[in-house]
Amino acid sequence: MATFVLVPGAWLGAWAWEDTARALRGHGHTALPLSLTGLAERAEEGGPRTDLETHIADVVEFVGKNDLRDVTLVAHSYGALPVSGAAGCLGDRLERVVYVDSAPFAEGMCLLDLVPPEEADQMRQQVAAHGDGWRLPIPPFEVLGRSGSLDGIDEEQRDVLYARATPQPFGPYAQRLSGPVEPGPDVDRVLVACRDFTGLLDAGVPMLDFLNQAPWRRFDLPTGHWPMLSAPAELADVLHAAVS
């Protein structure tokens, strides 16, 4: 049985993984969701100095403090950034990395590299006007859907999302990832691609070609960008299959 450490995406906390974690435990696994500094129950721990190194340390320290071994480290969306950094630091504690509708970041990259300049400017304006200069509020539902498919999220789940979401520390978005970022050669590499990402992979986007090649193993999940909300049991089944 595997030990899963589940890292959420922007605006989310450990709470977002609750249903998937419960289903993984039903398969006999250990499933440990975490919240990053400045988010969810750790919102008060964040501040203007919260940066990417803070979130990488959150993941590394969580594994170390719990003395976890043979870890399957799972990243959703923004979580791919701190997980990429943590994967290069965990050594033989790490057995597998899984990117859920996301991909690893290379050394020297930052999240804003993937955002059109005008959208990045809008984010900075929101941070300045409504986020105390360091936090990015979650955008309205229709705007959120522009960055990732909302397929499968019904009105009740949307209400839960907006009731529990917390503003995202913005410092990690702009900070470039420093090394090391590459996990050891024996670490298993897994991609869980939801609908939007599946389309990009099948279209042969050059910067994503490596994800269709060994040593990567790909699993497709026909739902939107937030599968832990829209298809939590199905996501658990895919993660179980990935470690079986």
Structure description:
With about 240 residues, the protein is of the alpha/beta class. It is about 35% helix and about 15% strand. α8 links the parallel β7 (about 190-195) and β8. The termini are close together. The model has no long low-confidence stretch (mean pLDDT about 95).
List the quaternary state of the chains: single chain
Please trace the helix and strand order, writing H or E for each element. Answer: EHEHEHEHEHHEHEHEHH
Q: What does the overall shape look like?
A: globular
Structural class: alpha/beta
Sheet of most strands: 6 strands, parallel
Strand content: 15-25%
Determine the number of helices (DSSP H or I, runs of at least 4 residues): 10
Helix content: 25-40%
Within the largest sheet, what's the order of strands?
A: 2-1-3-4-7-8
For the residues shown, what is the average pLDDT?
A: 96
- Uncertain runs: none
Brief account:
It is built from ten helices and eight strands.
Task: Present the secondary structure layout.
Elements: E1 3-7, H1 18-26, E2 30-33, H2 52-65, E3 71-76, H3 80-87, E4 94-100, H4 117-130, E5 135-136, H5 141-144, H6 155-164, E6 168-169, H7 171-174, E7 188-193, H8 195-202, E8 216-220, H9 227-230, H10 232-243
Parallel strand pairs: 1-2, 1-3, 3-4, 4-7, 7-8
Antiparallel strand pairs: 5-6
Helix pairs in contact: 1-10, 2-3
Defining traits:
244 residues; alpha/beta; 6-stranded parallel sheet; two-stranded antiparallel sheet; 10 helices; 36% helix; 15% strand
